[in-house]
Each structure stands twice: as C-alpha cells, then as structure tokens.
Write a structure and sequence with these properties.
heterodimer, A: 400 residues, alpha/beta, Rossmann fold, 2 domains, six-stranded mixed beta sheet, 14 helices, B: 296 residues, mainly alpha, ABC transporter involved in vitamin B12 uptake, BtuC, two-stranded antiparallel sheet, 12 helices
Chain lengths: 400, 296
C-alpha cells in the first residue's frame, strides 16, 4: 500500500515537473537547511542562517528557471543522528535538491554520507573541519565559508610569527576540535615551534578553571583554544580570571565569531587575534548587505550567515543559468563560475569541494577604539585564498 | 609520594582539589534546592536549571536596567525568582498534588524548555557578560595556584546558604512544621497549620536557592539561557547519589562530586563529564536509596 502511494506520488510529481519545466525535477527547487536553532551555535548560525537563506531566495525573486524556490529548515541540535535522519527524510520524501549550512563538523560529516548516497548538492557553511575537503570529501559537497586549515594558517601562523613558539591546546573533544588542533600543530611545527601538550575537554563544558590551570602549569607561551562558541568565551573568561594573561601567557582563540566577541564584550575580548572569512565593515557592498541583515535579525551577520547567503545564491544562479537542478550539471557550473559578491571576490570552488577565497586576520578593538555597536575588528591582514587553504595538490580528497 | 607516583606535581593536584571544591559548592547549593523541593513536595523539579539561569539573568537585568550592583542582586534576585517559583507552585504544581510523580516531572521539564526557549529568543544563546564585583576582583597567590577572590567567595557564600538552610529546616518551628507536613499533611492541617501555604513557601525557597546559585555563577560564566541545562543533569545525578530529599546528603555529595570531577579533569579530562554518572550507577546498584537516603 505504502509503495503504491509512493508510486502515485512520484508519478504525479513527475507529471507536474514536466508541466513546469523540462529540466527542473518536480517543478520546485527545494533547499533543506539544517542548523543549530537553539543550542550553543545558534547565534553564529541558527535563525540568522535561516534569515540569510531566505534573503538569498527573495533576492532571486523567489523563483529560479521559472519554478518556485522553497526553503525547508530543521533544528539538528548539534546531533549527527538527528541531522542524518532529517536529511534522509528530506531527500527521500521531500525531493530536496540541496542541503545548506550544517554547523558542527559531526553533523556535516553525517549529512555528507546521505548526500553522497542521494547525490545532493551540499553547501557547508558552519562546519569547520578540513577533512570535509580532504579524506571525507564527496563529489557534490562544497565547503564554502572557512575551514580549520585556514584558521591555522591565519591565526596560528600570525601568533608563531610574533614569537609564540611553544603551545598548549584546550581542545573540544570532538571531530572539529581535533581537526583544528591537528591543523594548527602542523603550522606551529613547520615554523619551528613546539606543542607541549593538550587537553581534550568535554563538549560543551561549563567550567574551564581546571583546564586553564593545567594549561598554565604547562608553561607554554601560547594557550590555543581549539573550540568554539560558548566554550571559547567561557575559556577566555576563566583565563582572565585566573591571571593567565597577566602572568605573561597569551591566548589564541583559533575560532572566534563576531557573535562571540559581541557576547564577551570588548572589555574582555580586546586584543584577541582571529581569522575570519567575512567582516561586515569592509566596503560599501559588505555594509549594504549586512545592514539589510541587521534590519531583519537585529544582529550583524557572522561569517557563517554571510556564507549561507552567498552559497545559496551561487547555487540558485547555477540553476538559473543551466535551467536544470540536476546535481552534476549545477555542480559543474558552480565550479566553473567564479564567485564575485559582497562575500567573496574571485572565489573559486575546486574539484575537492573547497571554495577558495581570501581570508582576513583581524584584531579585536579596545572599547576606546570602537566607534559604535558592532565596530569590533581591525583587519590586520588579508590572507590570499591559496595561502589560507593550501593548494589542490595538497588536498587528500580521493575524487578531486 | 602518591602524587609523584601518579606523575603530577602536588601543586597541580592541590589546585585541582580546590577548584573541585569550588564547583562542588555550586552543586551543593543547587542540589540542596532540589532536595528541599523533593522532600516536601515530592516533585522532581526539572525546571531547576532554568530557574538557576533566571537567577543569573535577574542579576544581569538588575545591573543592566536599574544599575543595581552584585550585592543587591545577591538578595533581590533570589526573592524575585523565588516569588516566580511560588506562582508556579500555586497555579500549576498544586494541581498535580496526589497524581503520579511523572506528571510533575513532565510539567517542570516543559516549563524549563519554555523558559529557556523564551530567553534564547530574547537574548540569543551566547548570552550576556556580567562583571565580577569590584571588591572581589584580582586574587591571591597560594603558592600552588592563583586563587581569584571571587572563587573563594563562592565557597563561603555557598556554605553560608547551606548552613542557613540546615538551620531553618532542622532547628526552627517552621522547619518542624515542614518536616511534619512531609510525614502527614492531613494531621498537621488538623492542628490548624496552613499546609498549602507552607508548601508554596518551601517551593519558593528551593527556587530561591537555585537563583542564588545563578547569581553566584553570573560573573564566572557567560549569563546564557543554556547555562542551566548544561548543569542540571549533573546536579540531578548528585541528588540521586546523595539520596532524594536528604538535605545533608545533597550538601556532602555536592562537595564530594565536585572533588571527584576535579580530579578526573587532571587524570582523564575526556571523562570529566561522565564520571559523576559512573558514580551514580555504582551507588544505585549498591544503595538504591542513595548514600544518605531513607529506604522507603
């Protein structure tokens, strides 16, 4: 009975598709956005990422190649099993054409498995781990906004260059933290530095005093925070409280979003160096888009949210240009066509799925330097895309 | 030396023990509130984490909107949140008196989700910064570690709260009424004591303790809607280990679990989030009523 129903559904949607457009399956383009709507990453991705995707669809006029674009969203609660089940359900029952956002590495890896089986375009913005375009890459996956390697080549390299040659890591104990620690370790050791040790802390952890104290006892010059969101802000608070910085050790927040800086306040966050793929106050284009985003959400966009807009737009443009929502066709167009928008200039999607674009090394302003709300960063240096992400030859993606 | 055998210098170990004690003080105050509520209302208060978070947010709001400092908040926030708790008891929990425990659990769990959801919507998940009070900034070098004054204060304040609670319940007439109310509410009512009012006050007091812990935590962690849900499961484990409803059990177990967790953070940091549940499992096998609990 169920099979019959499915067949009937399939037949009717096929009929609808041929009526609407010869090339767009089932007469609608569906994007399934999976994100953390209420947990620790919900400020840097979450509802803001949904808003960014909605803006991208609206700016295309709500239709592409003559068919409507529909956005499905769900809260994956940072759990890989929830994300995988939702993605499978969307792929099988909703005929979703693409998955988007996917903050939290374990979530992205789980959805990659589904997307590989179902051959769906996957636009990763929030997850950070470099394996997504190396060992774990899939032919239809795009890692868009940033990755742990770029963070290592940005913040890690800058700190070593300033003399921070002995490191100790506080690492979130899951795929992302481990990947970030590994990437930064490579950069530190290549520059002649030394890693004295690391602690794998539970994710999320509420109290960092113990970990901070152990880091202090290591005697390392630099304490690298290989974690994100509330873990990073709480670790920074504990490090300040226990006099780590006052005693001469320095903190390297290896992944920090503007929403984290906003939550910490400039008083605590000032002077921190970080690597970002986007900052709202760079030029007229970034300001124009970000202010629209601000009006809608009440916050300035994180790089993840800006990346969602840019990646969804690039995908929809691909469908518009090719008149097809076939995964291989659109992927080919997206790889061939450079990305030039407020988010990236001359960005290119490589065959391993990496979107290579310039990254920025920023320093958090002091309260007296900041001229108003969200005026948080001084851009210290632009890191050219290839320097940040490495070359395609270095990628270990088997299908590159 | 044992510490040398384990490969850690004594300084590190002392430091971690002290930090464990500080965290244990939080567990003690939170599990104490839960124990009071369970002992007198027979309700497993799953909203406790959310009410702890409300305490921290109340402190933040008092400072942000009214310019009231930490010391004022330490008294005002528990009263405000405790009052809110009394409303919950009067209008929601009372309706569940006499039905299965499960309903109280479901109601308080639902309340926790609603309160947290509303606060995430209003303030975002990253939360708000709350400064350490000026008088408690800085710290003292103990030789084996740098102890921030504020963390020292947390232990003192928690022990005072536990002591006051113990005195109130074990040494005063109101305490005697409350304990009698747990044993036989009908008989107590027959003596002319207003038992429903007592119950409301007891719930309000337990909630006030949660809010007090929230204010204590505000300068240490980010004041975030999620701060309670991250902690509450551990606190429940502490209460189960100590014995549901046992005041002394809650305090002693809270401190002990803080110490055990602190040591785990040195020897096996990855397991520090689970060690308390491991202890809980062992205790449940050997003493199902908890270490200090009365067997029913």
């Amino acid at each position: 009975m169920k099979t019959l129903k499915m067949l009937a559904l399939g037949a009717s949607s096929l009929a609808m598709a041929s009526a609407a457009s010869a090339e767009i399956s089932d007469g609608v383009v569906k994007i399934g956005l999976l994100t953390d709507m209420s947990g620790t990453y919900s400020d840097l991705a979450g509802p803001g990422a949904v808003a960014a995707a909605e803006m991208a669809i609206e700016d295309m006029g709500g239709t592409v190649a003559g068919v409507p674009v529909e956005l499905l969203t769900a809260d994956h609660q940072n759990k890989a099993d929830i994300a995988a089940n939702k993605a499978r359900e969307w792929g099988e029952n909703e005929q979703v054409d693409a998955f988007a956002e996917l903050v939290t590495t374990s979530v992205a890896l789980a959805v990659y498995e589904i997307a590989k089986q179902q051959n769906k375009v996957t636009l990763v913005s929030g997850a950070a781990s470099s394996p997504l375009t190396n060992d774990a890459c899939i032919p239809s996956g795009i890692h868009y906004t940033y990755n742990t390697r770029a963070l290592a080549n940005g913040t890690g390299a800058a700190v070593v260059a300033e003399g921070g040659d002995t490191w100790y890591f506080l690492t979130a104990d899951y795929a992302f933290g481990q990947s970030l620690e590994a990437d930064v370790t490579k950069v530190v050791e290549a520059a002649g530095g030394q890693v004295l040790g690391s602690i794998r802390h539970p994710f999320p952890a509420s109290d960092f005093s113990s970990f901070v104290l152990q880091a202090q006892a290591s005697g390392a010059k630099v304490i690298g925070l290989a974690n994100a969101g509330a873990d990073t802000t709480n670790a920074i608070k504990a490090a300040n409280e226990f006099g780590l910085v006052a005693a001469g050790q320095s903190l390297a927040a290896l992944l920090m979003f503007i929403t984290d800086v906003h939550a910490l306040g400039l008083e605590t966050a000032q002077g921190i160096q970080l690597t970002t793929g986007f900052y709202w106050d760079m030029d007229d284009e970034t300001r124009a888009w970000s202010e629209k985003f601000m009006e809608r959400t009440g916050n300035m966009p994180s790089m993840v949210q800006a990346g969602v807009y840019s990646s969804v737009t690039h995908y929809l443009k691909g469908i518009e240009a090719t008149g097809s929502d076939d995964t291989d066709t659109v992927m080919a167009w997206m790889r061939e066509t450079p990305i030039d928008d407020f988010f990236a200039k001359g960005g290119r999607i490589r065959s391993d799925g990496r979107m290579v674009h310039d990254m920025y090394l920023a320093r958090v302003k002091s309260p007296s330097e900041s001229e108003g709300p969200w005026d948080y960063y001084d851009i210290v240096r632009t890191i050219p895309g290839e320097e940040a992400y490495g070359t395609l030859e270095e990628s270990t993606c088997p299908t590159k | 030396m044992l510490t040398d055998l384990l490969g850690f210098p004594p300084q590190v170990l002392f430091g971690q023990l002290l930090l464990g004690l500080i965290n244990g003080a939080f567990y003690a105050v939170l599990s104490l509130g839960l124990a009071v509520i369970f002992g007198l209302l027979n309700i497993v208060n799953f909203a406790h984490g959310a009410l702890y978070m409300l305490g921290a947010f109340a402190a933040w709001a008092l400072a942000h909107f009214l310019g009231l400092n930490y010391w004022v908040a330490l008294f005002v926030a528990p009263v405000l949140v405790g009052g809110f708790g009394m409303l919950i008891e009067r209008f929601l929990l009372r309706r569940l008196a006499g039905v299965d425990h499960l309903y109280g659990l479901l109601l308080t769990f639902g309340l926790a989700l609603v309160i947290e959801g509303v606060f995430i919507k209003l303030f975002g998940a990253s939360g708000q910064p709350y400064p350490t009070p000026a008088a408690l900034q800085g710290g003292v070098n103990l030789g084996f570690m740098f102890l921030p004054w504020y963390r020292g204060w947390v232990v003192v304040a928690s022990l005072i709260a536990c002591g006051v609670t113990w005195y109130l319940f074990e040494m005063t007439k109101i305490g005697a009424y409350l304990r009698a109310g747990t044993e036989n509410p009908k008989l107590l009512q027959a003596f002319g004591v207003n038992v429903p009012l007592l119950t409301t006050l007891a719930y309000g007091y337990g909630v006030g303790l949660a809010a007090f812990a929230g204010v204590l935590a505000a300068p240490i962690t980010q004041v975030s809607p999620l701060m309670g849900s991250n902690l509450i499961i551990v606190v429940f484990a502490v209460v189960v280990i100590g014995g549901m409803g046992s005041i002394m059990g809650a305090v002693v177990t809270g401190l002990a679990m803080g110490l055990i967790e602190g040591l785990t953070k040195v020897f096996w940091p990855e397991a520090s989030a689970t060690v308390i549940f491991f202890v809980m499992a062992i205790v449940l096998v050997l003493r199902p009523a908890g270490l200090f609990g009365r067997t029913a």
